[in-house]
Amino acid sequence: MKTLATLENLIDRLREIQRINSAASVLSWDQETNMPAGGGTARAEQIATLQGIAHKEFVEDETEKLLGAAVDLTTGYPLDQDGELWDESAQSLLREVWRDFNRARKLPSDFVVKLSRECSLAQQVWAEAREGNAFVDFLPNLETVLNLKREEAQYLGYAGSPYDALLDYYEPGTTIAGLRPLFAQLKARLVPLLRKIQNSPVQIDDSILFHAYDTARQLEFGRLVLIAMGYDFEKGRLDLSAHPFTTSFHPTDVRVTTRVHEHDVTSCLFSCIHEGGHGLYDQGLDPTHYGTPLGDSVSLGIHESQSRMWENCVGRSKAFWRFFYPVLQQTFHHQLRSIDLDHFYAAVNRVKPSYIRVEADELTYNLHIMVRFEIEQELIEGRVKAQELPELWNQKMKEYLGIVPPTDSQGVLQDVHWSLGAFGYFPTYTLGNLYAVQFYDQARMEIPHLEDEIAAGQLLILRQWLGQKIHRWGRMFTPERLAQRVTGVSLTPEPYLQYIERKYGELYRI
Amino acid sequence: MKTLATLENLIDRLREIQRINSAASVLSWDQETNMPAGGGTARAEQIATLQGIAHKEFVEDETEKLLGAAVDLTTGYPLDQDGELWDESAQSLLREVWRDFNRARKLPSDFVVKLSRECSLAQQVWAEAREGNAFVDFLPNLETVLNLKREEAQYLGYAGSPYDALLDYYEPGTTIAGLRPLFAQLKARLVPLLRKIQNSPVQIDDSILFHAYDTARQLEFGRLVLIAMGYDFEKGRLDLSAHPFTTSFHPTDVRVTTRVHEHDVTSCLFSCIHEGGHGLYDQGLDPTHYGTPLGDSVSLGIHESQSRMWENCVGRSKAFWRFFYPVLQQTFHHQLRSIDLDHFYAAVNRVKPSYIRVEADELTYNLHIMVRFEIEQELIEGRVKAQELPELWNQKMKEYLGIVPPTDSQGVLQDVHWSLGAFGYFPTYTLGNLYAVQFYDQARMEIPHLEDEIAAGQLLILRQWLGQKIHRWGRMFTPERLAQRVTGVSLTPEPYLQYIERKYGELYRI
Q1: A439 and A347 in one domain?
Q2: What residues of A are in contact with residue B233 (Cβ under 8 Å)?
Q3: Looking at B119, B136, B161, which one is the last position of a domain?
Q4: pLDDT over 90 (residue A84)
């Protein structure tokens, strides 16, 4: 059997390239958390330079030579010409490197640099436009990015829609054709459920969440929950940023951010738990495989499954609050002393169509994704112009959620993704929601008394299970194979739908 | 006349390389201010990778081709083969690029990577060893770095001592032979002056500085002074780090750090002013020349002249405190209400031999440098082994300052420099002290009523003068030429010595 040892030169090269990518990630993190306002233009150039170098080194003849010695470069099949087979790790590594290489070599390095620069700049313009509710200010940058992404799809090639070429980057193997029935199935059961909830006699009062809560204490509580989850502060940090995110420079340096609103006790809390779920995944990757696909996360859908599982299946469960609500009550004695657990639990699970995706409840969240999924296709396929976006957005919001945002800041400008060129990213959020419940159901079957443990504040047992089942494997398995290995079946929306119907059925007495 | 426009391709290349160096600086800044403890090893590799790439790109044939088209690569003389001369900017740029290129090409890229990695690691070990007062823990890393620096000197070549090859990097043209008489001159007048001060009937009581001062307020005051100096927070930040430093990623993103001790009101204050002086220089460089020598600082000695001028000539002057002492009194009413200006002014100027260089007064500071200057030579020339350092250190401290530090943490382990491989750096501090007074004397002659302006809190006028005379020129002139242009003469210790003798003569009634 040939092992990873045979691939040492290729791996050294990948590791070197990853160090450049990690450096670019440090610069991006810094841009979001620390960079003074004036530094933006220079920073965009610096990040673009690093990404250009990383791309150039990756697609160089030397990589092709090293990779070509191990796989057929046209098909990706491992070469066994000397009669010896590759072991499973080596096969997985080669499959994934070939996939990345094959994609990267289709893009000229100049194009990569240009895309990186334009996205950094667009992000900065977007942030200001959002702040000032001025879509027109963002429009020229959005058009530039959009055109570049269309160009990228052409470079990459596709069978069905150019949008497929972009989807595949975030979630390998995903296509419009594959997603449409999935979304249709969700829509068919979520929309009627939403209607029932809206017509339910049960009215949940969540006003207690929006009293004044000291921001420093909110942060402290978020930090406490992260520690309980097993997030390792020796290998991580918690900072503030306009939009919570997680980034990793190495499994020994994985950073999460949050935001704190004095008049919303849920914002900091759930974003800490959410990003903590991402952080645990990145801290759980095997550092010996840093730089290779075996030290990388499987896909954005799987990554999101980790954050959503912690945020929703755990963080919005009764069990979780059995332990943590008394702690929260102690922290905010004045505000919460007369609110009982059931009231608080209901409040953090209230279903209500709202404008902002990241603040949406577990049910309507996917409707927000459907809005974006449909708009993205039309944008990338060129059936809709960027300037038509605000109108289209509001129209889709009306259709799916029954509400129209009063401003673009609360509408089409709310998400950073399009400024970053991340078209095709949104659907992975819904995939993450589905994977989350599918994995969590399995965890409950395999871990004895999981909910009792959680109710006793013992969260580490779940982190350990996820580490063993998912984190440590990196990209050893495709998302599909991973789901099969962990749960016995491929991705299916059924567990999520049953979970939602059960949870809200109880809460709203439907 | 041929201008910079003719050099466009070369400049583009330099700019690209500088972006990589700037990225490495972001990673270093992050390491000192934010990085979680566990991230150190991976970070050292990431920085080393970037520095290796920057070095490799710089010494590549393409640079040689572009540079060789404009200068004689052996002598550095500009080529005027087509009869047209280069203008002054282009000549300066070519002179400095040739100097850098000539130096860089002597070093193999593998060596640059290794040196970078070992220094990052040594720095981390040093920080722990200093914390724990354990020189032996640091010894192996110090030996590694020392051997690499000796090796570097061999690569670079030298006429007199291998130490000269290292000196020249920080202060172009500086040699042991040039520095020795300078230090001898200082020693000849500073040591007797110190003795007179120690025998003076005037005893300054500075105990008020070491009462308890709220750290948040100290930081606020430091920030206030930075703003008064003209440090632009739209293009900079102030953070905390174990050792105050300034770093620049671009003139639009220049960051200073400080430290705050509750029981020493001077530490945060003077490090803010000191680093602010560095920061003004970096913010004052011409951004259109970013990446080329014309957008870079002249030398460390000149850089230090800016920090020391602000810290000492301004920050420890009576004029400065005429305005700022009432503000400080308001900030720390309880501690300072009964202390008058003269008392406070004397306290922050008390002369007393002490263990820690960065806390030394203006007089004994240079004695600290002489200790290091002599030890460095012996280390690099191989006459002293790293393991003998603690003993040698204490012996020299006794000789120059008459005191022996009780621990290595307060002695040989106090400075970060040797862990970073920065042998040859220390002498630039003394050069900075001398340049500072020489420039400041000139400023007082040229700016009407400068000290009255300062006494009215108007510091911007000095920043503007420095910007015009020094900052904006980058490396257009050598340090020597710059001193001549600004003050009419080359570097001379006379202004500094007269300033010191006058200032302390008054304070100590000598």
Answers
A1: yes
A2: 36
A3: B161
A4: no
